[in-house]
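Thread title: Can someone regenerate the structure for this chain?

I was given the following input by a collaborator and told the matching structure tokens would be attached. They weren't. Posting the sequence so someone can regenerate them.
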Amino acid sequence: MRSVVITGVSTGIGCATARFLRDRGFRVFGSVRKQADADRLTAEFGANFTPLIFDVTDEAAVFASARQVRDALNGETLAGLVNNAGIAAGEDR
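Best answer:
Regenerated them for you:
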């Protein structure tokens, strides 16, 4: 099974991309910032979705999630990376 990492899958383009690739047989590792989003997407997408809960501005969390993906792939190659997550400042964050 081909696997991809998509950042920012909670809503919008990231969520649609995750759905599109999942429907075409990809295993999707998707980043979200909130546990509630991880739970919702896991219920919607099923077994071929693995949530990665982190904020893309937190370098340590990004590296920890990369290790999580590497370990889950168990030597398989990642087919793609979609860097969709945005970074906002101030109240929008």
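Residues 24 and 59 are 31 Å apart (CA to CA).
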